From TrEMBL:
Coiled-coil features, chain-numbered ranges: none
Organism: Larkinella arboricola
Signal peptide: 1-20
Superkingdom of origin: Bacteria
Identification of the protein by name: VCBS repeat protein
Amino acid sequence: MKAVLPLVGLLLGLWACHSADEKLFTRMPSDETGVYFQNKVAEDERHNLFDYHLVYNGAGVAVGDLNNDGFADLYFAGNQSGDKLYLNKGNADGESLRFEEATETAGIQPRGWSVGVTMVDINADGLLDVYVCKAGNYPGAERANQLYINQGAKNGGAVRFKESAAQYGLADTSYTTQAAFFDYDKDGDLDAYLLTTTGLVQNPNRIEPAVTDGSGFSPDKLYRNNGNGTFTDVSGQAGIRHDGLGLGVAVADLNDDGWDDLYISNDFLNNDYLYINNQDGTFRESVGQYFRHQSRFSMGNDVADVNNDGRLDVMTLDMLPADNLQRKKMTGAGHFEQFELELRAGYQPQYMRNMLHVNQGKTPDGQVLFSEIGQLAGVHATDWSWAPLFADLDNDGHKDLFVTNGYLRDITDLDFVAYNVTFWQTGNTKADFRRSTIERAAKMPSWNNVNFFFRNRGDLTFEDATADWFGDKTSLSNGAAYADLDNDGDLDLVVNNINEDAFILRNNAPKTHFLDVRLKGSGKNTFGLGSTVTVFAGGQRQTQVQAVTRGYASSVDYRLHFGLGASQRVDSLAVIWLNGNREVLRNIPANQTVTLNQDGAKPYAKPKSAPENRLWVDATARSGVRYVHQEEPFMDYSTEVLLPHKFSQLGPKLAAGDVNGDGLEDFFVGGAYGQYGKLFIQTASGFRQQAYTDESRPKQEEDTGAVFFDADGDGDADLYIVNGSNEFDDRSVYLQDRLYLNDGKAAFSPAPQQLPVIRRSGSCVRAADFDKDGDLDLFRGGRLVPSQYPLPGESFLLQNDRGRFTDVADAVAPELKSIGMVTDAVWADLDADSWPDLIVVGELMPITVFRNNRGRLTRLNAFPQSDGFWNCVKSGDFDHDGDLDLVVGNTGLNTRYRCSPTEPLSVYAADFDQNGTLDAVSSYYLAGREYPIPPRDLLMKQMPSMRKKFEQYADYARAERKDVLTSEQIEKAQVRRAYMQESVWIENRGKGQFQVKPLPQAAQWAPVQDFWVEDCNDDGHLDVVLVGNAYDVEPVVGRHDALAGLVLLGDGKGHFTPQSYDKTGFVADGDCRSILALNGKAGRWLIVSQNNAPLKVYARSPKAGRSLAEIRKE
């Protein structure tokens, strides 16, 4: 260990001289820094939008100590301006952040169109070399990448370089965006991955089969280091064959097996790629196995431990604007048909926004589980963005996020796009179209934006700190890198801009503490690439990986920087080198640079989790349950283009009961249109499947709810099935619910005469003796009026009279009939008067309590402004005070649009254009103003008369809700609002008083569709198991899929603690709809239903109670 102690007192003194109102970052003037580099881009006959679609993509910057003087130097890549090398003179003249241009004297010979740049010690001599990636609309030879081998600074002179790409075999002529160097085969030297794109694509979003055999325009390249100063292209044999338009590459061990993998972000239709290292010199593309969706137009990326849990998370950037004006100018209609076609063609789901994929650790089968929560984190919309960089910018111990931004021409403006389409479709020649496109593009305004700074709050959410940390300076920024340029203990930033001087951003961080780490590897990996360093200080853990290719087309400094906040010492520091050896240092003073040598590390075996202590084990295979729910495709949007989601994919729901009287609980799963539901009869070892009715006729109904209850008082479990969906006309015979009477031996007979006419689209049915006459009555919830969103469905209160049912809602609960778009309900005696009360929840409606006053249900105003997108409700005494509390599932916080009591989400519904159809226009608030949600194309499709009002996309983009719908129209409309999005538990305080409390953040990652409440770990406290997600959402917003099931352990005081998947064994990561638990001879079963997917079955682990009780104490 070698330490370099800085002049801490001097630094603190300098900080004291800073003004109190100074930003965290100061943009240093070029005449002070000496850095005058500009990345020049100007359209010409060769480089323009038509002939070279990458013309506005900018270039990167690399930071590293090239002359080993202790200060980081800069290398800027230039498109049309030529590369520039700047040496940091901080050590030479004592001046802070002063650089000297040394391009020519150092032997740098720029040519062509440079894009990416990486510093790497490629020949293992202890000196950083420079690799430059080339593109541009040039012949192949002029696109050959350059490799500058560092010759050192001889006799005290300037550092010199020798261009040697051809000699090394790395003069690749692809359209190369960036290079990453890593030891993929663990032979001790550094191999090269080249991220490529192409200048040849004319329509990159056209749906064509993905090219995966290496024959495409732009498969990436993998060059193996031969160990003798040469490299060999082994792409094909190594499995790097997928075609793409690469804009970001990250090297990291994402599956936690000790071998470096590759995350590749691709622009346009091609999915991102995750190349998992097979440990044998080959890779397998696995993005669909690890990530449930991706950015649509993926730009740069970064991999870092964002939440200090020791796991690596993934960030990709896209081009979703932060403001309403730009969003509406560039967002067209979301075509669900096209989205479905892309899925059928083998592409994974993609959406236009930034993505933050949080690593949740390994599931019981060893698979690393990622959940995308960029919207919850608040980092999903940063305009046309390029480089994401995670780094602790304020030295508080949490990695903040810096994002570069801007595009030279606003070519996504839909008025510009529409003009070009019209010009082509009106018979002009290709030459005319080319000329027109080039001329109009050159006249489009620049999309100058401010670069974003996000402060990490430490809880997986970020605060937009741009104004406080930087200000409002806009730019056209692309590549960026971080380093402590002045060695004062904080990270500065370097940004490569188009047609403007590069930014040198000096960090003015307050007087907190830090630790820097240098790695000195043995063998030919001299800077320890691929190593992992973990620091424990101030009660928290920080983990960083030595990987310098980050963001977009750039590489960062090799020094690892750890902010320590107020901690003056590091409790421990551990480094695990790429070969698996480990070294641990303890009790290290802060404010210094520590150098770690690989030679001092010892062999290390990573501990493994104990699978026998998990709460549940996946028992689907051995349970005998073989049922796959299969939806018949139905396009809700063909008649209601403004729907936020489909209403034809509501199932399948589950119901439990002992249908054959053997003392074992059985269950029913509902079927979709054209598919019968099934009974599963429990046996000693599992379940056997059985039909519940004659299946000789085609099934027309869609099952949306079910319950087992004794309908006719004969002591057995009869079956009631709710019919629903959006696929039928209102009052269709296929919306009539069904009752099946049990003979006590699991043989069911339909009993239609026992029910009234209920031809309404429904959602749920719940049984209770609400009138205390000794039999079970039913509440049947109404979900919707088909094709009339958001009108409330019709609900029913079915009173049981000797097995015949009569709707008595009008008589005993008049407010219940049209209460809303009901999704779920529960009977629970909230006031402990022995009469069951009814709690009803639904979409765009409040949590509603009907107090049972001796058989009459009276609506209470218990939860004002609780309107939300509620999906489910269950009861239980979570705080051990003797009364029943509630847990209620909502849409969660990982959503594009947020709401609050003062700024709700709204839906205004009326026949606004008087053409005989209901128009449902939704709105949201942004920056204090209410805007319509639908893109212009969708609104025009729903209401063609609006075209005269908003002839241009720009006109509509400037419109607020009041400009689209007048106050007179609003007065005549039905209005539904949502004020809450969080899933909650509700404490019953007694005497009609309730307190609503949010569930832990992990329960807010996606819509919660169902709960199961029981004491999972035998500690005497009720716990909550939840499932969720929603795949039926319109494709502009995109699927909600971040949940993978969740176990919340209760402490009996109203507090819930989320448990990891590795510890619980419970993973339900599909489009889950329902969950229930059953007692069996062999123990406890947990059943989970998924839309358009198989049932999942879990069995209780016999050691689970002891194990999770211990977990609670950790």
